Amino acid sequence: MRAAEPRRLGAVIVASFMGLAASATGALAELQGNPEDGAVVFQKCKGCHQVGPEAQHRIGPHLNGIFGATAGRHEGFAYSKAMQRASADGLTWDLGTLDAYLENPRALITGTRMSFRGLPDEQDRHDVLAYLRQFSDSPRDIPEAVPSAFAREVDLPPEVLAIVGDRDYGAYLASECLTCHQSDGSDAGIPSITRWPTEDFVVAMHAYKRQIRPHPVMQMMAGRLTDEEIAALAAYFQDLD
What we know:
By secondary structure, this protein is mainly α. Helix content is 47%, strand content 0%. It is built from eleven helices and no strands.
């Protein structure tokens, strides 16, 4: 196979899928989603994604304006190579493609870093898409939704959040983490922790340390770490490629 053919093959695959998704869009449009119920379903997503006027990129990109956008569109966000390929091949987020991605992210984009396993329930998908529609331009000119509040799992003192972690020390400490978590960002049964924003990492670890997050192994691991050690690990994993 010539060097140019893999890209053409990827484009054909994406184009074929988008054609199928487009043919299904009419049927999807007939199924009504409830944005209020979708806001509840979105609780499963907000650990990685934000929406609303104050939304920022976190572990995943913010989802404002997702409808009609090209995949992997945000400058400066570290998308996976798989998402970059989908973007180059012209994957656009519409009702059909978003529904398929939410049902099984890795069936649509093989190699995506998104570790979420999907929403198998069709009504859940329609509800969360109706919710996200409020943060995009709409055929009915629905305005941008009111600001959303993003409460932290743990309210940490400002001085704890302000600790600048020593990345080299974090690399030393990370050997124990990497017995389970994969350094390449894959998540074969274990969630990926690479490229987490430092604040998200610190908050999550303190949530385990205070036994708010219910994972006994992580509670034990985090319970042994000082604030400085958590900050060092956060600095290491944020930039791990």
